[in-house]
Amino acid sequence: MQDFYCEEVLSGKTSVEKVFETENVLAFHHTRPFWETHIVVIPKHHIDSLLTVDTKMLDELLEVVKTVAAKVIGEKGAARVLTNLGEYQDSKHLHFHVNSGKQIKPDTKI
What does the alpha-carbon distance between residue 91 and residue 108 come to, in Å, rounded to a whole number? Predict the structure, then answer.
């Protein structure tokens, strides 16, 4: 699967717990978290990566990332923001991870 976000999340095949949403951006709890708090922020239409996003969309994405990160910091005291490129990018759809806490194995109950 090359684009989990378009094929599963945005299509509605996989339900997600929404954290924040705008007309063009969705933030939700990761379906298989790697950290105690793990939120994903995606554009609602396909964009390959940070290298191909236009400035207007990037501005909106970063505003949502800031909003979500501020909420996580308020609740947990700290947050990390990460995006991957190239071979590190499992799903070929631009996405940011906002996370906090200890790293966990996917599918581990927290």
Answer: 21
pLDDT digits over 65-76, tens only? 999 999 999 999
| Residue 110 located in a structural domain | no
Tracing tokens 């996580």 back to the chain, one arrives at 72
Residue 108 lies in a domain: no
Alpha helices in the chain (DSSP H): 4, 55-76
The model scores a pTM over 0.90: yes
Tell me how far the alpha carbon of residue 78 is from its chain's centroid.
Answer: 17
- Please give the tally of structural domains in the chain: 1
Sign of the Cα torsion 70, 75, 79, 81 reads negative
Asked whether residue 64 is domain-assigned, the answer is yes
Q: Supply the CATH number for residue 31's domain.
A: 3.30.428.10
Rounded Cα–Cα distance for residues 86 and 62 (Å): 20
